[in-house]
Write a structure and sequence with these properties.
This protein is an alpha+beta fold. 18% of the residues lie in helices and 45% in strands.
Length: 332
Amino acid sequence: MKISDIFKGLAQRAKSGFNRDFLTYLVFLLIAITIWYLNALSKDYTTDLKFAVRYSDLPDDKVLTNAPPDQLNLTLNAQGFTLLKYRFGLLFNPLVLEASYHTLRRKSDSRQGEYFLSTQSLFERIASQLGSDVRLRMVEPDTLDFLLSETIRKNIPVKSALQMQFEKGFFPRGGMVIEPKEITVIGPKTVVDTMQYVHTRPRAFKKVKSSVRATIGLQPVHQLRYSVGEVQIVQVVERFTQASVAIPIEPVNLPEGMMLKTFPASVTINCMAPISDYEKLQPFMFRAVVDYNAIMDERDNQSKARVQISRAPDFVIDVMHHPMNVDFIIEK
């Protein structure tokens, strides 16, 4: 017979009223089990539980270079109700242990920087962080090892790790401003001296069409501390439009008594300019040149002169020119 058939049979019998005594028995059995369970939980028990640990007040002039235990095993005595709450994390809070010069002890006959912390010396402090209805019996391990290294301080520039995707027609105007632009890094000399930048945490901005102002955290590095935990970033964003100007080509580095003519005599410059400055854009802001020295150096390999844009206003981007190479003649 299938189990499903058995349950169907019991259900039919219960509905028909033939087995009401059995259902009554089940109800009283459940009540009895509940009373027994509540009575058991009201008694005192001793058990071991693991607690997370957080260390505080580490010396400012040193950095922790090892990893002390992140958990302690506590032997506790309390009512079953209380222990059950700890077991399921309802009363769970990390234990805070002071690891300062007041509580740390230097190891004798050991290498420099080795310290230890006796959990027995902090027994009362640990007990005070537990509930008043909990009695602490034992703490394991009884000794925690710390390896502290001398630190140095160095000012290091902050570098952005942000990614920005701009809406069509919008571009950044100028570079990103980071404040503060450099911070003080504290840590072991062997680590600090290898750092060129402190990077921000990565973050992506999508469909940007207005200036961005944000507070960004710094990417942590093991064994290092920062003078600040975050920086302010500002990126000005504007709508840009295409602009074109025509300017004459000028020869440079031309020996005295020599003349250089190009064909054509001018170039067209195409660029993107912010709408707010579009009316300010004038041809004199640009300069296009051909270098006589470059022509002489490359004359055997080419018959044209390369045009270079030696000056452009700082508010334009994507500067291109046409033609890039021109014919020329040199006259004395």
